[in-house]
Amino acid sequence: MDLRTDGIPGTTAPRAAGAVNGPRAGDLGGFGAAAGSTPRGAMAGAALPLAGERAHALGDSLALRVAVGRLRALGCAVDEPDGPPPSGAPAGWLGLAGAPFAPPGARPECRISWSGPVGVPMSDERDVQAACGIAHVHGRAVGAPRVLEVDFASVCAGVLAAQSVTAAALARARGGRALSVTTSVAQAALLSLTQYIAAATAATAATAATADTVGTDAADGHGAGPAFPDQPRGTGQAPPFRSADGVLFELETLDAEAWWGLWHRLGASPGAAAAGWPPFQRRFATATCALPPALGRTVAALDFDHVLAAARDSGVSVVAVRGADAPGPPAPESPWRLRAHGAGAAGPALPPLGPDEHAPLAGIRVVEATTRVQGPLAGHLLGLLGAEVVRIEPPGGDPMRGVPPMAGPYSARFLALNRGKDAVEADLKSVRGRRTARELIASAHVFLHNWPPGRSQRLGLGPADLAAAHPTLVHVHTGGWADALPAPQPLGTDYLVQAHSGVAALVNGPDGPCAPSLMTITDVLGGIIGAEGAVAALLARVRTGAGVRGETALVDAARLLRDAARPRSGVADHPSSRGADRGADRGSGAPVTVDLAAMAADPRFAPALETDGSGAAFGRAPWTFEPAASAPSKEAP
Q: In terms of C-beta density within 10 A (0-12 exposed, 13-18 middle, 19 or more buried), how is residue 423 classed?
């Protein structure tokens, strides 16, 4: 599919009629609503989940600004009086003040810090990236820690903070007590790396066990070693590629035959194509992708149109890398595309929340049909908020369960996002399997999936299909592109979204190469936004009594990162270093993590991580919910 756009030498800019630029920088909720105004949206007026509510915000961190923008997008009027945040909330404070969620004497609140429970002093984004491993994972492609030049941890923390306030409002609306939430930018960072931490610690534990069994060779690095080492090995050229006519582009396929077919059509040697597939396939897990240089030389001798034709014939997605100043797609009317469904039918209320319950989603049942990162992370966060989550998996279980490194009988990476969930196997290609899915969804309050566009309708599990029997269902789709690109869309995966959205032009800074981070940033933020959308939809369901559908996408995560970032123009050259000189130690006051397994073993990180019986470590819930004080803090308005 030809997705060449302006800002790329030698390309054109096809845009849909009426398309406009995305939201202004600073409109971090995706609406551009001013304080106290009512944001536009498909769920207008009282149907907006927080319409009619008031909140106060103290502080000036990016995390707080993001949270304020998200709450305004939900309809909440947020006041921002002058003054510092209260003690224990150096990165910001939020408090709901309007009935019915905050009756006199108690109100939901959220305190945001930098370090949270982690025993390493941190005071800004650079400290968090250095200490919590983001710089390490982002820098794996070059073999040294490297700052991610967008404030990724702060943006994640802001969305998580807004999500927690909305969840606290939902708890109050279900009859629960007012809750006080604490969260931190460090906890958001560790959540974003939970798969990488799980893989590193499981591999280390497996290597140690092998050494104990067969001797010391494996532990010394001379044996088989871990399946996915924490540090990159070998040399080579990572994507993106550059064509003979100067177009920088990313490509994506999840199919080995399609990969082989592309390189065969482009004239690459069979040996180079075969050697390139394993690192290309594993780059989501390893954050490295050392491809044979011969592949880069092959495309460098061909015009981009030739590459596009070969990609179309092979079933491979190709996307041109755009500059940070490239126009974005129209911003959706709601960051979560919330809208009522079920023809206005009202149903039974959500189950009440007990007065002593601290988990705001306790009693909520979620049925999840997701794969990879974004969808499972969204379901994982709903589970951490207290929901019961049941996965629909194919016969034999999700294939990702068996991908090494293993933590006991299951993949460490799979467990990082799916532990604590139940699973029901169903062959959705069969009538019986689809019936099983419908019966399971009929018992749920939320149905969450990340299928490609149109699949839910083809399976008879789309919003309209399910609303007929379950009019109050919350139906949430987490996808790749939403309506940002016309059909047929390229694969909705992290690196393609980074490339097309302009995020790739930001992550390595103004002097670095224009190349996506191989750390999965839009997948992770997209999963957080997906869970946020589900919580918002549940609150809308409480207020209206009707079913709600929502749709979030990786492109929404990219838009939020781009809105929060310093702009950069154009597309720079793509040296093989991928910006290796942009080290993590420049100006950082925190120690720089260079080994995730060692970080997980550091007792200072123990309050934010948990370790299972196999030795694999995972990020804990990024918030703590406790009963709110019976009276407002003297330091808060």
A: middle
